[in-house]
Amino acid sequence: MTSEFLVGAARSGKSRHASTLAAESGDRVIVLATAIAGDAETRARIARHRADRPREWATVEEPYDLANAVRRHAADGTVVIVDCLTMWLANLHYGVDRPTDRERELDELVGVLDGPPGRVVVISNEIGAGVVPADPHSRAFVDDLGRLNQRVAAVCDRVTLLAVGLPLVLKDMR
Q1: All residues at 6 or more sequence positions from 141 whose CB lies less than 8 Å from its CB, including other chains
Q2: CB 109 within 8 A of CB 66
Q3: Residues 6+ apart with CB under 8 A from 135
Q4: Active site located where (predicted)?
């Protein structure tokens, strides 16, 4: 059906915009949450995101197998919000729960987003606009997320940059 990509800085309004898009559709909504609640601050963020969503929306926690989760849940009449690629990629980079072939996982996700079976709204952070990180692990993560964001933007029907809560449509192929 369609895929939409929302990208922007932290606290730029991406999740709020995704929620608005999903609510306006009137369809069933499933949020695929990728964060792992490893500390109190992350648990608080997750709780805030849950509290901000309508109660009837389902939340599925999927920190690793995102491509299969999108396949399972995206269908006609359902909007799937992926919140977010940044945390998912961090899980693949730094997670200890599951060994992974990161490139295969990225290829699978991009393949699913290139013509998903339903409506999918994908959220990611733009983290490469600042200073180049000092350590090699952080540089590799920033580089990988930048490449992933480019690949996702290339296959999604619509790409919107969020800045200070305002959406700027960069691509619209719908």
Answers
A1: 89, 90, 93, 133
A2: yes
A3: none
A4: 49
Question: CA 98, CA 78: separation in Å to the nearest integer?
Answer: 29
User: Which residues are tagged catalytic?
Assistant: 49
Query: Where in the sequence is the domain holding 76, given as residue range(s)?
Result: 2-172
Assign residue 87 the CATH number of its domain: 3.40.50.300
3 is in an annotated binding site: no
Q: pTM of this prediction?
A: 0.93
The CA angle 44-133-164, to the nearest 5 degrees, is: 50
Specify whether the CB–CB gap between 145 and 85 falls below 8 A.
yes
Q: Would the annotation count 83 as a binding residue?
A: yes
98 annotated to a ligand binding site: no
Q: Can you spell out the DSSP letters for 37-62?
A: --SHHHHHHHHHHHHHS-TTSEEEE-
Render each residue's pLDDT in the chain as its tens digit; 174 residues.
Answer: 789 999 999 999 999 999 999 999 888 999 999 998 888 888 888 888 888 888 899 999 999 999 999 999 998 789 999 999 999 999 998 876 665 678 888 999 999 999 878 899 999 999 988 888 889 989 999 999 999 999 999 999 999 999 999 999 999 998
